[in-house]
Amino acid sequence: MRVAKWIMCFMGWPMLAFLAASVHAKTLSITSTPPNATVKINGLVVGKTPYIAKFPGGYFRKTRSVFGARLEHPIVARISLDGYASQQVILTEGPFTWRAFNGHTDGKYWLIRTDHLEITLEPLSRAFTGKPEITGAANEASATKSPLPVEQIVEKANPAVVRVQGADGWGSGFFITGTGLIATNKHVVEGESNLTAVTSAHQRLPAHVVYIDPDKDIAIVKVKGDAFPHLALASIKAVQKGETVVAIGNPGGGLADTVTKGVVSGIGPYRALGSGTWIQTDAAINPGNSGGPLLDTSGRVVGINTATVISNGAGEQVQGMHFALSAQNLIDVLRNFYPASRPVTHPTASAGAGIVRVDSNPSGAEIYVNGAFVGDTPSVLHLSAGIHKIEIKAAGRRSWQREMNVLKDSQVTLRPTLNPQI
Fold it and tell me: In the prediction, which pLDDT does 143 show?
């Protein structure tokens, strides 16, 4: 009887521990200044600040038995509010290996670092300081500039290129203002809370995300400081098929600030990679290059290096298919924060230019001007004065066309509705 009683007590202890873990929950609170910010947990909107949620106690401390509640995945919180730079925080630490008393392992677990997170959101007016250099749209393609040798392009651009380092990997980026704003890919920084920007001079700068685009693979991070060397951005009208381009980045397994050279193979939408205007090139873009600049022979950024395709839809291997997201997409983002920013145009004897804002229902439709793809709606176009053919296309919808006379210094808004095809 004594032996039986002892066994029953021993077997009952884990069950009591399990019940305690379920009953004795612990509270996690997230507050922000200012309040009423949106809280996303692992990409899902869960509420507004102040946000309070209850979790099992075993999520905050190691549970005593295999039957206790364990957190089996990391938790990433994103706090965002209109007019403020969003913040992303990894709430957990781990993974740890759970080991039983007999030494056997029973999977991985994570622990929530703290029961209270307090966030101070930075106004975008403070984050988006300085002024990006955006070259103009009109007459760019025919700008009479002698192409620079590759070594001069690299010498000019390299000080502005950085390695964007996170806890789980790294990518590349480049300064777009002298006040510490860095452009990179969204997939480089998503899920990361502790970022470091490493310059070509090996300076390590703490960085934080100030903007992530909801639709395109674009993110902007910031470091403290000023007088950083930065790169000019060129609109999509500056890019021509066949022109020479140079990619700079930090590929895994290679040296820092690796340089590759190629040509522009194609320009246009490429839905397999997502929305936006894509530049295809045979300049090699490898893992770790993501977020780095694709440069023209004037040293201007024409694209953000993003992806490489290694096989087609039939499973056949392909070569030389590398893609950069057009700098035009980044320019469109920056104009939301720098409304006074206008393209720097080259002096010409033209009749001037006008602004055409293009939106559509549904949004995300493709815009063609005089037969050339120039981006997705909504977009702001800077067109030379004169007659232009505007066409808006979307899959499964009737295209919309109009021939319009753009006047010097005019501002026009187009909002066509694309009706479904019958």
Answer: 47
